[in-house]
Write a structure and sequence with these properties.
It is built from nine helices and no strands. 75% of the residues lie in helices and 0% in strands. The protein has helices at residues 2-60, 72-127, 159-171, 175-188, 193-208, 212-225, 232-245, 249-262, 269-282. It folds into two domains: 2-53 and 74-127; 159-282, Serine Threonine Protein Phosphatase 5, Tetratricopeptide repeat (Alpha Horseshoe), CATH 1.25.40. The two termini are 88 Å apart. α1 (2-60) runs antiparallel to α2 (72-127) and α6 (212-225) packs antiparallel against α7 (232-245).
Length: 285
């Protein structure tokens, strides 16, 4: 509680410094500066009047006479104004001295408060037993330590479950989730029977994300894994579509030609229709 009070006091003192300076400058210093400016303006106006009067008199005499000296009353007025300016400047210097003295006192008070805060913090550490040696004759016991519970790594779901989840995500156009499920299966065992399905799922997900270059590589990998597999025709058509999307038309036409040649007698109707449409779009001969 004492530490909080001391910290609050130090913050109030820090806030008081600019407030005190602002109050002095806004009220007294600014007023003195305005008075000095007014007096200086009066002096300048008087000098201009004297010079103007002397110049007119000299011109009326044909310019053969020099400017007459100012009258005694004018000289007294100038001397009075200069004395006022000097007095105001002395007041400004005294005001600055008071401000400097106030700042010095506040700095000393802040330093004293900081020292007291440090002393209280040190005493608080001693009271908590931090950094203090044990008193002689007193037995110390080691603090009880609790070992954290062993973190059991969570096993990913079986490949079959992951593939079902990935295919469901693909059906609702959640391509990132589908790709993550496929990659998890491939990382677990890239040579398992389910890796072929996962590779084809990954290719479809990448194509849905419009990552056509990666999709082309994934489709090609899926086809090469099992050229006569269940996804072979879809993989070749997906490869051709991905290549066409990245403006690789000759390669896309080559993939379509390979599709027709390899599955000339067993080409599915939907694959044949998709291949014909893509062939017209890419301008394949």
């Amino acid at each position: 509680m004492a530490m909080r009070l001391l910290l609050a006091a130090s913050l109030l003192l820090f806030a008081a410094i600019p407030a005190a300076r602002a109050q002095i400058e806004s009220r007294e210093a600014i007023a003195l500066r305005n008075q000095i400016l007014e007096v200086q303006n009066e002096v300048d106006q008087l000098r201009n009047q004297i010079q103007s009067g002397g110049g007119n008199q000299g011109s009326s005499l044909g310019g053969n006479y020099s400017q007459p000296p100012p009258s005694a009353s004018s000289s007294d007025l100038v001397a009075s104004l200069l004395q006022q300016v000097s007095s105001l400047q002395d007041q400004v210097r005294e005001l600055r001295g008071e401000v400097d003295s106030l700042s010095h006192r506040v700095d000393q008070q802040v330093a004293d408060i900081g020292k007291k805060v440090d002393d209280l913090a040190f005493q608080y550490q001693l009271a908590q037993g931090k950094g203090a040696a044990a008193a002689p004759g007193l037995s110390t016991t080691a603090p009880r330590t609790t070992t954290p519970a062993a973190v059991v790594p969570t096993q990913p779901p079986p490949p079959e479950v992951l593939l079902r989840q990935g295919e469901a995500a693909l059906a609702r156009a959640d391509y990132s989730t589908a790709a993550s499920a496929a990659e998890t299966v491939l990382q677990a065992d890239s040579r398992s029977p389910r890796a072929y399905d996962a590779q084809f799922l990954l290719a479809q997900s990448l194509y849905g994300q419009r990552q056509y270059t990666r999709a082309a590589l994934a489709y090609d990998d899926a086809f090469n894994r099992l050229p006569a597999g269940d996804h072979a025709q879809d993989s070749l058509l997906g490869l051709a579509r991905s290549l066409a999307a990245i403006n690789q038309k000759p390669a896309a036409c080559a993939a379509l030609s390979k599709l027709r040649q390899q599955f000339s007698t067993s080409l599915r109707p939907d694959i044949a229709q998709g291949a014909s449409s893509l062939s017209r779009q890419t301008g394949c001969s």
